[in-house]
Design brief:
This protein is mainly alpha-helical. The protein is 46% helix and 9% strand.
Length: 138
């Protein structure tokens, strides 16, 4: 039985992890005399999904849609697109060209980017440095 989209493997991993923690707690507090036997059980492996890449035509089409947008005709929507259209294009271009995660992009400050260097050096989590090649278009 699969609950709320979880697979059997995910359920098994969660239950085995809970049992390991429980046995570990019991052993540390001298409530049981035997060692944690659940450590001998191997954790089931999750199947990794293949990464799907966009080809160059799909990237161009996607960026064109982000840049031009689909304006239904209202004046407010046109103004909104004029103001934020460039920003949205830069965000999507950064995600596509650098491969950074959305959470990394959201946490990025202007001071984290060394604009004097090429390639650009970005500082993530205030400690982890990554060198990114940012295309001139951005």
């Amino acid at each position: 039985m699969v609950l709320s989209g979880q697979t059997i493997v995910q359920q098994s991993k969660r239950k085995l992890s809970a049992l390991r923690k429980f046995y570990s707690y019991m052993f540390k507090n001298n409530l049981i005399k035997t060692k944690n036997n659940t450590e001998k059980i191997t954790m089931p492996k999750l199947n990794q999904k293949d990464i799907v890449y966009m080809d160059s035509d799909e990237v161009k089409s996607f960026l064109s849609l982000v840049n031009n947008g689909k304006i239904t005709g209202s004046r407010m929507e046109e103004v909104y697109h004029d103001i934020l259209g460039f920003r949205n294009t830069v965000i999507v271009s950064l995600l596509l060209t650098t491969g950074i995660r959305v959470s990394e992009l959201v946490g990025l400050d202007i001071n984290d980017v060394d604009q004097k260097r090429t390639p650009v050096l970005m500082l993530f989590a205030r400690e982890i440095k990554k060198i990114m090649f940012i295309i001139q278009m951005i």
